[in-house]
Specification:
The chain is mainly α. The protein is built from 10 helices and 5 strands. The strands form 2 sheets. Strands 1-2-3 form a 3-stranded antiparallel β-sheet, with no helix packed on it.
Length: 275
């Protein structure tokens, strides 16, 4: 997945704006078609280091969804595919179907599956890397909603943002998300550069992103109070999305345990970053 330098800053900004508009206007199969018109398959093949962080990050921030995970897993021609889920389970992702009553997430076309074919190690690394960016985007969306809420709402004559406990929760969320982003940027270079440790780095990046997104879900729901638990506010969509994405291709807890088992087996830890 060596990445040629084919996009300058202006081109990246233009594409990012077009992708954001597409995700703000459509979701599901309609968004799949819009992304195809914007050249998603070519972007994924030629500039994955731009395409994956941008597309998956924007999916998280906008709350939209598309079947681009199947493309990253090397199943671009499949109408549906079984994907590993936490706890040794499987879910079926269908490109054409809308979410149904049996869906794992009422917004995603995911349904329980009995079994499937495990992705290759390379495909699994790419998928976990992509899901990490999606989780990060969802966590940032939750933080943005919580921030807007505490700036607008008042209690005892003061904005909620003036209370130290609220600030601490949001600050902890921001630190967790920024740390996850740094780990994902490391995975960008590893996966696109065919690093021999790419599988381990991608697993750790998804684990970090999952833990950060779960931190965002927990703190932001508390900051929003009662309304954060209702369907009237958009936060519940991002919280549910975070829970589902964390489970896809192994959860953050499972990945952390797998990484620990790998280190015990090898007896050493590779240098994953030059500090």
């Amino acid at each position: 997945m060596d990445e040629p330098t084919t996009l300058d800053a202006a081109e990246r900004d233009l594409l990012t704006g077009s992708l954001r508009r597409a995700m703000s206007e459509s979701s599901g199969p309609a968004l799949d078609a819009a992304l195809a018109d914007l050249g998603w398959p070519d972007l994924l093949a030629e500039v994955p280091g731009f395409a994956v962080p941008t597309v998956f990050g924007l999916l998280g921030e906008t709350g939209a969804h598309a079947s681009v995970l199947l493309d990253v897993l090397g199943r671009a021609d499949a109408g549906e595919a079984a994907v590993p889920f936490a706890g040794g389970r499987w879910v079926l992702w269908s490109r054409a179907a809308e979410a149904a009553a049996t869906s794992v997430d009422q917004d995603l076309p995911l349904s329980p599956a009995s079994a499937g074919t495990a992705p290759s190690e390379e495909a699994l690394a790419r998928g976990r890397w992509a899901l990490g960016w999606w989780l990060l985007g969802s966590g940032r969306a939750a933080l943005a909603l919580a921030r807007a809420h505490v700036l607008e709402r008042h209690q005892f004559g003061r904005p909620l943002a003036a209370f130290q406990a609220v600030r601490h929760r949001l600050a902890e969320t921001l630190v967790a998300l920024d740390g996850a982003r740094a780990t994902l940027e490391l995975a960008d270079a590893a996966v696109c550069g065919a690093d021999p440790d790419a599988a381990l780095i991608a697993a750790l990046a998804k684990a970090a992103a999952g833990q950060a997104a779960l931190t965002a879900a927990r703190h932001c729901q508390q900051v929003l109070g009662g309304i954060g638990f209702t369907a009237e506010h958009d936060l519940h969509r991002h919280v549910r999305r975070i829970l589902v994405l964390d489970g896809l291709l192994s959860s953050s807890v499972e990945l952390t345990r797998q990484a620990g088992a790998h280190l015990r087996t090898t007896g050493s830890a590779p240098r994953l970053a030059q500090l």
